[in-house]
Amino acid sequence: MGILPLGTFNYVARSLDLPMDIPTAAKVILDGHTMPLRIGTVNDSMFLNNASMGAYPAILEAREDIYRRWGRSQIAAYWAVIKTLVTARRPMRLRLTVDGESRDIRSPLVFIVNNAYQLEQMKLEGANKITAGEMALFIAPDTTRFGMIRHAVAVALGRAAAEQDFELLGGKEIDLENTDRPARSKRTIAKDGERERLRGPFRFRLVMNALRVLVPAERVTQVR
After folding, report:
1. How far apart are CA 218 and CA 224, in angstroms?
2. pLDDT tens digits for the chain (224 residues)?
3. Where are the domains of the chain?
4. Architecture of domain 11-215
């Protein structure tokens, strides 16, 4: 797979040391070498950077509506976060199983990350989980609407801390099952910024060496 950096944040391209200008990125496709790329899947649907359930898919929906009305801007993006959290519904109730160990959780947001570079850019812990061959799992605390906004601000400012603003776990196999509704009910899942309705239970898997991607000839590290 050759990559041209045409997205908003370009986390995949940047994590692979790809140039941000299109002519030079195209030259990498012609002259670079290939390296294996791990992916994540949820119910066999692929994602490269992250997938989430709960508040974040709702934030994406609100952001798209605000963008249509007022155009794209950082202020519009932040307003989408506040608008969603102020009007947030009750937290999800889920049965969480990580690499065979199960427990019940109540949370407004579950976020699964497969890109150490993105975590480093967001100044979040968890890159060590990815380096160790796992996915990083973030579970937002069950709190009030004001508490959710406070945690969101901490993430935005790069000041979020494990056990205070989120619970951090690592795993290769992460299963989430509805307990506040029928097990096979659908939920909206966000994958790399795109939303999709999937039917539970939700099975997140890490698949090593699933793709081969063209990268600059000088890149040697395998973890992104």
Report:
1. 14
2. 999 998 878 899 999 999 999 999 999 999 989 999 999 999 999 999 999 998 777 777 666 666 667 666 666 666 566 666 656 667 899 999 999 999 999 998 899 999 999 999 888 899 999 999 999 999 988 876 555 555 555 555 456 666 677 899 999 999 999 999 999 999 999 999 888 999 999 999 999 999 999 999 888 777 78
3. 11-215
4. Sandwich (2.60)
Beta bridge partners of 93: 106
In this structure, what token pair is assigned to residue 178?
Answer: 């509805």
Report DSSP state, residue 90: P
Query: For 220, left (φ over 0), alpha (ψ -120 to 50), or beta?
Result: alpha
Q: Strand runs (DSSP E) across 55-152, as ranges?
A: 92-98, 101-107, 109-113, 135-139
Nearest to 138 by CA among 98, 166, 114: 166
pTM here is 0.85
